[in-house]
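Bump. Still looking for Thiamine-phosphate synthase structure tokens.
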Amino acid sequence: MTLDRFYPIFDDVNWLTRMLPLGVRLVQLRIKDGPDAELRQAVEQALALCRSHGAVLVVNDHWQLAIEVGCDWVHLGQEDLDTADLPAIRRAGMRLGVSTHDHAELDRALSLVPDYVALGPVYPTILKQMRWDQQGLERVTKWKRLVGSIPLVAIGGMSVERAAGAFAAGADIVSAVTDITLHADPEARVRAWIEATR
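Sorry for the wait, here they are.
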């Protein structure tokens, strides 16, 4: 299956309610913590919304919940890989995306035969504190050579204006967070993203 080239990440189902009707086809729900019942409700609601709009939902981190609810995709960071039951994820038929920041993490990710590899932060990001400096477009090109046919997601400091450069460097998919959520008109920004990536 071919994934859409635009991959927004949201921390609240309300964003999906707003953005899926605009034509978003690939979205990640990234809720770091909360009561189990609220997390389950959020994932169930997100999955129903995505199915009704023909979009792919990727659940960040909460792989057990994603399996129980019947999701198709999970995204794991390197720390998540330490504790996740990868055979159980595969037995459930789930597809897997993995975050990478350096060569050791990429080697680890590739050993799992993931369904996409994410590289970040390509540019400085305000989303979270990271011990990695910006990776730059040169590393995007290097990563694409190393991952081959596996889809490569560029994330971190991405904007509509930077998307073309990321694609030219070798990214298959560009992911955005604060470029949308902190924008004065998030809906207009998503429309601009869709126009720039299709």
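The chain has a mean pLDDT of 95.

Edit: fixed formatting.
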